[in-house]
Specification:
single chain, 469 residues, alpha/beta, eight-stranded mixed beta sheet, five-stranded parallel beta sheet, 31% helix, globular
């Protein structure tokens, strides 16, 4: 099955994805400008090459000076490496991916770049609907894609694979792009098994009365139908029952009370919400008004940020139990307890002062990091096949300590580790989910997902990996 989204429908289908979301690790909407902040320290150039390399977390010698030479592939010269960044910033007005690209490249270039070559971020704004055009522009100029994401990413996979462009993805959204060929996705994820098994298992164990009274409420779109199906299969896989699966107009409604009453009348004791942050907080306010307090609300990572806390207010935060499952990424609010996360915060302070560090920033940073480390290992012989093969050797990747471990060579593996956040009157905090591996709980149930579009492959386009040079 393939999903076709026409232009008019795409806006509606992805209004809730405007922050670059899906449950694959979404952005916060804290940033308000579409232009990344500039740093008083000035953007670094290759002339600032350091004699020794810099490390990030547990990843050593990432960027450094050197004598790499030659125009060894598209986007590579003796002086620079051009990496494309796909973003919906023109639609979302959220500069997260641009900001991460700026901070990473400034930091890397200050240390000498990649073996002496300056790292250049080539921003490709999809404006949401022009994802195929943005990808075509990347195909025409870039060495790889790095640290990017687009809400309609599945529509541009064919274009990317036809030009043999490797993608070091910050976040995947549509199933056609989840595990697609020539993709390096460094976040703990799977294109075959549900990554929410541990999360829903914990919710049902923590609130046993909700086990056979789970609901799903989402904005009506073809994309959220996929998300809702995944949730329903996961709930069933951990022994629960979905008693209500409903939708609302994707643009929202003026009165959320009927939806609150519907959930209450169906006996829903825990539900997942797919929509925008302001929509969820309006619904929860209506729930408070009618005295409806389910055991839990899966706000998902759409809500993981300051916007949700501000919009919800202290009363709703105290009355309702909101949770978000993080895809094995160390919590932003606990940065001081994790050297790698703290290092990102300090680098943002240095190169993009005033810009907050969000969940998607951390995911994008890991994507940039695995690309840079892989490229560094190639030296002068920097080609797409070299950098891609080098990345596939990372079978225990943690982004230097930003995430739980991921074998990037096996995108279909059973996911293992996860972590859960809870919204409280004091802010987002780790929920009491009994971690057994640092900040994470590992060993979630294996729930195979069926009936969804599969990832796009080179073979499906009549191509072969041997064509990559």
């Amino acid at each position: 099955m393939r999903i076709a989204i026409r232009a008019a429908a795409a806006v509606a289908a992805t209004a809730l994805l405007a922050a670059g979301c899906s449950r694959a690790g979404t952005t916060s909407t804290q940033a308000s400008s579409s232009t990344p902040a500039t740093s008083s320290s000035a953007s670094a150039s290759s002339s600032q090459a350091a004699s020794t390399g810099v490390s990030f977390g547990t990843v050593t010698d990432v960027c450094h000076g050197g004598n790499a030479t030659g125009s060894t592939d598209q986007g590579v010269t003796s002086s620079q490496i051009e990496a494309g960044v796909l973003t919906d910033v023109g639609f979302t007005k959220d500069p997260e991916l641009e900001t991460t690209a700026k901070v990473f490249t400034d930091w890397c270039n200050a240390a000498g770049g990649i073996d002496g070559r300056k790292l250049v971020a080539d921003i490709h704004d999809t404006q949401l609907l022009d994802v195929v055009g943005a990808m075509a522009r990347a195909c025409a100029s870039d060495f790889v894609l790095a640290g990017g994401s687009a809400a309609l990413d599945g529509l541009a996979v064919n274009t990317r694979l036809k030009c043999l462009l490797p993608d070091f993805d910050a976040q995947v959204v549509m199933p056609q792009n989840n595990g697609a060929s020539l993709q390096i996705y460094p976040i703990p994820w799977s294109d075959t098994y549900s990554v929410y098994g541990g999360y829903y298992q914990w919710l049902e164990q923590e609130y046993p009365a909700s086990k056979n009274a789970v609901g799903i409420l989402s904005g009506a779109s073809v994309i959220t139908q996929v998300d809702a199906s995944l949730v329903a299969q996961t709930v069933k896989g951990v022994g629960g029952t979905v008693v209500f699966n409903g939708t609302f107009p994707i643009s929202g409604v003026t009165n959320w009370t009927p939806y609150a009453e519907t959930l209450k009348n169906h006996g829903v004791k825990g539900f997942t919400f797919y929509g925008q942050t302001d929509q969820l907080t309006a619904l929860e306010t209506a729930m408070d008004t009618i005295g409806y307090k389910p055991d839990w609300i899966d706000a998902n990572t759409n809500a993981y940020g300051n916007d949700f806390l501000t919009l919800a207010g202290q009363t709703v935060l105290a009355d309702q139990h909101n949770y978000a499952d993080l895809p094995g990424v160390y919590p932003v609010e606990k940065a001081a307890d994790n050297p790698a996360t703290e290092q990102v915060v300090k680098l943002f302070d240095q190169y993009a002062p005033g810009q907050p560090v969000t969940l998607q920033d951390l995911q994008a940073w890991s994507a940039w990091l695995i690309f840079a480390k892989s490229a560094e290992s190639c030296g002068s012989a920097l080609t797409r096949v070299c950098v891609y093969d080098a990345a596939l050797k990372q079978t225990d990747w943690t982004g230097g300590g930003l995430t739980a471990a991921k074998n990037v060579a096996d995108p279909g593996a059973v996911p293992s580790c996860y972590n859960i956040e809870q919204a409280t009157t004091a802010g987002w905090v780790p929920a009491p989910f009994d971690p057994n591996n640092g900040a994470y709980r590992c060993g979630m149930p294996a729930i195979k997902v069926t009936g969804l579009p599969g990832p796009t492959t080179l073979a499906s386009l009549g191509l072969s990996l041997s064509a990559l040079k």
